Amino acid sequence: MTIQEMKQIRQEQGYTDAHIAELSGIPAETVQKIFEGQTKGIEYHTWKAVEDVFIDKMMVREGAVAYGAGKKQGTYTIEDYRALPDERRVELIDGYIYDMAAPTTFHQLMAGELYRQIANFILDQKGACTPFISPVDVQLDNDERTMIQPDVVIVCNPDQIVRRNILGAPDFVLEVISPGTSRRDYVIKLAKYEQAGVKEYWVVDPYKKRVLVYYFKGEVFPVIYPIDAGIPVNIFGGKLVLKFDRIAEWAKEA
Q1: Spatial CA neighbour of 172 closest among 235, 80, 253
Q2: Among the listed residues 98, 72, 77, 192, the one whose alpha carbon sits nearest the alpha carbon of residue 145
Q3: Domain 1-61, what architecture?
Q4: What was the pLDDT predicted at 195?
Q5: N or C, which end of the chain has less CB nearby within 10 Å?
Q6: pLDDT, tens only, 57-106
Q7: What integer pLDDT is reported at residue 69 of this predicted model?
Q8: Spatial distance between the Cα atoms of 38 and 22, rounded to a whole number of angstroms
Q9: What is the pLDDT of residue 241?
Q10: Model's pTM, two decimal places?
Q11: Domain 105-251 - what CATH class?
C-alpha cells in the first residue's frame, strides 16, 4: 500500500496520529514522521505495523467495487457470499465483505501443527468435540449477515455441524495473524467472537512472538504467553496443553 493510499483512507476515517499509534503499537511521533514523508531510517516492521491499520479499510473499499454493483458494504448477505466465484476467498462480517489473501506457508504450517495436536488429543481421549481447519464456513451469529473462516475451530455440539457450514459459535477459535489481518483478528473478530458466545479465542501472533488467550468464561483475559510456551486449552480443563516449540522456530522466519 502506498503512502498516498494510506493518507486518503486516513482522511476518510478521520484518524489522528494518536489513533494510528494505538492501533499499530508504533509511537505517535514515528507515525507523524511517516505521514510527513520522513521515512529515512524507518524499519520495515514499523512500516508494516502502520500499513496494517489501513489494510482492512482498503479491502472493504475494494470489496464494495468487486462484489455486487448497486449494493453497499454493510448490506451483503450470505446469499451474496455464496454467489461469489469459488476462487475468491472472502469473509462476511456484519454485512461487510473482506477479501482474504492466500495464506503464507508459515501461516499454514502453524495452523496445521496446532490442528494436529488438537485432533490427536480428541482422538486419543475419544472425545465428542470435532476440530476443523480453514477453509470451513462458520455462520457465527446464525443469521444472514456473517460468515467467517477461522484458522482452527473446535465444535462440541454435533447439531451445529451441517453439510455446508457450522451453525453458530464454536466452542474454541484460533486465528494465526497474517500481514493485513491483524486489526481484523485483534479488534473486529475479537468483539464478534465474544458477542456470539465463543468460549475461548486464541490469537497466535508470530510477528510479535506471542499468543493471546481469551477465555471469556474466566475472570481475567487475555492471558499473554510467549510463542515458545506450552499453553493449556481451557475448554478441556487444561488437560490439553498445546506445544509451541516448533511454531517458535517457524516464527523466527515470519
Answers
A1: 235
A2: 77
A3: Orthogonal Bundle (1.10)
A4: 95
A5: N
A6: 655 555 544 555 457 878 899 999 998 887 778 899 999 888 887 788 88
A7: 46
A8: 20
A9: 98
A10: 0.75
A11: alpha beta
Amino acid at 104: T
Q: How far apart are CA 15 and CA 155, in angstroms?
A: 38
DSSP character string of the chain: --HHHHHHHHHHHT--HHHHHHHH-S-HHHHHHHHTT--TT--HHHHHHHHHHHHHHHHHHHHHHHS-TT--TT---HHHHHHS-TT--EEEETTEEEE-PPPPHHHHHHHHHHHHHHHHHHHHHT-S-EEEESS--EETTSSSS-BB--SEEEE--GGGB-SS-EES--SEEEEE--TTTHHIIIIIHHHHHHHHT-SEEEEEETTTTEEEEEETTSSS--EEEETTSEEE-GGGTT--EEE-HHHHHHHTT-
> With a cut of 70, which residues of the chain have pLDDT below it?
1, 12-13, 55-70, 180, 254
